Amino acid sequence: MKKLIILLFISTYSLSSFGQDSVKTRNNEFYLTIANFSPVNVHLKYKRQIVNKIYFKVGLVNLSASSNKLEWQTSTSFPISKLSYSGGIEAGIEFRKQLTKRFSLFHGPNLSFTYRETIFKISDPSLNTKQQKNITQSYSGVLPYSLGILFNLNANMLVAAEINPNIYYSYEVYKNGRSPQANNTSNNISIGFDNKIVLLSFVYRI
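User: That's the sequence. What structure does it adopt?
Assistant: Structure tokens below.
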């Protein structure tokens, strides 16, 4: 009985010490990521160190909006406009490996969901507002695996570059305002990359 009490005391003390050490060494990182330039697409992410080489991350992804309008020079044509916007959320686990004092590798699985909507509008006054619009809505779920490198500019500022091979699923809904009989839906599953360029991030660490 005495040995059991001593063992429990040692175990409790060890766990307590481990927890205190973990708190002292935890880093918090804030990411601003450029995913595309035309249209501009950005990610805002937060990463928190949970143990020595493992981070938990969560963020807003695929934040984008664009608007275009075409004005015809003839009296028989009507202005055409296009509005697109998107937004999503992502969470994941990340593993780190220090290469040098300034460079480190990271990798890990993620799960993300994104909603996109594109609205084409023909400003024909003979049609009501609903009939003037053709709308495409997209709901996508992605399982990306991040592979990247971090470079320390100083103790608080870093730069990251990464690629994200993934499994991608999307469900699209097309709504034709003028011809509802043309409405349709589609599904797509693919394996590839979630962006055409390497993701470049500016990182602030505290």
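The mean pLDDT is 88.
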